[in-house]
Amino acid sequence: MRVSARTGPPRIEAIGPLRWMRENLFSSAFNSALTVIGGVISVWLAWGVADWALLRAVFTGSDGSACRVEGAGACWPFVIHKFQMFMYGRYPDDQIWRVNFTYFLALAGLVPLMLPNVPGKLWLSIYMIVVFPVIAFFLLTGSEWLGLEIVETEKWGGLLVTLVVACVGIAASFPLGILLALARRSELPLIKWLAIGFIEFVRGVPLVTVLFFASVMLPLFLPENVTFDKLLRALIGVALFSAAYLAEVVRGGLQAVPRGQFEAADALGLNYPLKMGLIVLPQALKLVIPGIVNSFIALFKDTSLVLIIGLFDLLGIVQQAVASDAKWFSPQTAVTGYVFAAFVFWLFCFSMSRYSAWLESRLDTGHKH
């Protein structure tokens, strides 16, 4: 009897929604009970949020009196009237176009760089690493010889400060973290122990302490005529703090690379930079994508701590608006402002998380969705 061999990958039969629910949600009496209880709790929570945010919410009004009605829900007029403040702080109204143009230039370079099959990745990388930071600096701070009004960083606030601290922190901490991880695995004792000392010291103190040191203590060690901008000090502190944690993530990836990869690189006669840059690091970074993105998400959320040194990020500017403007006083004003800030933070963090999952799947890291 002739048996025909079938080639190609095995066929995966489609599973209908009813079968999927039966196998995953109602496979046993216990799972069915958990599904019903979880569904009831989810519906109850969703109804509570919808009732507060939509059904009983106030959408129009010029002050807090519109939200002081008995039984009123979210006070959205507060967010609407303070929206520009939440986004830009006290940045001059006639100069806000500079911030928006900076956002546009960032997206114009970052989005094609993150998408596959887009040509010119090298030039896009050079643009984002070398060209864009210079343009963004002059656009945001201003320059007299370019005809742009000087805007002191004390006037920056809201989402602008959050994005500046987070983006600069991520961009600076990533290469620093890689260098620290490589230094910690170095065979030179001096370099190795210096890296270990820095990493363990920074990881042993909270970010608040690092920010306080960078803002208050650091100027005491500098000459009298040398000063640093407060935002610059915060950026240095955040970058160094994040780099220490990122170094341990990268070191875990380096240790997970099979020893044979190192030996194969040595057998090819590659020197240390080529071995790490072409063979080891690409594999190590691919293995620890979840850890890297987790560090970036933590850094993005930790930007709210810059309030302790007098910088008003999104959460800080919301808190300031709630506490300082008696015109908008109502029982729901503070809650609405904090919910809005929480949603913005969640939106950025969730986007980073989903991009990480997509990147893992594309690079075939074995991640299970």
Q: How is this structure best described in words?
A:
By secondary structure, the protein is mostly helical. Helices cover 67% and strands 0% of the residues. The protein has 15 helices and no strands. The longest helix has 31 residues, at 333-363. The mean pLDDT is 87.
What is the tally of helical segments? 15
Structural class: mainly alpha
* CATH fold group of the domain at 158-305 and 340-363: MetI-like fold
Q: Strand percentage, roughly?
A: under 5%
CATH architecture designation of the domain at 158-305 and 340-363:
Orthogonal Bundle
Rg (C-alpha, Å): 26 Å
Average the pLDDT over all residues and give the rounded result: 87
The first-to-last residue Cα distance is 43 Å
Report helical residue fraction: 55-70%
- Main pleated sheet: none
Query: What characteristic shape results from the CA principal axes?
Result: globular
Low-pLDDT ranges: none
Q: Please give the CATH class of the domain at 158-305 and 340-363.
A: Mainly Alpha
Going by CATH, what is the homologous superfamily of the domain at 158-305 and 340-363?
A: MetI-like
> Order of SSEs, N→C?
HHHHHHHHHHHHHHH
**What is the number of beta strands?**
0
What would a concise description of this structure say?
The chain has 369 residues and is mostly helical. The chain is 67% helix and 0% strand. The longest helix is centred in the C-terminal third of the chain and has 31 residues, at 333-363.
Write the layout of secondary structure elements.
Elements (H helix, E strand, L loop, with lengths): L16 H8 L4 H27 L20 H6 L1 H6 L7 H19 L6 H21 L17 H26 L4 H15 L3 H11 L12 H27 L2 H9 L4 H16 L1 H14 L11 H11 L8 H31 L6
Helix pairs in contact: 5-6, 7-8, 7-10, 7-13, 8-10, 9-10, 10-12, 10-13, 13-15, 14-15
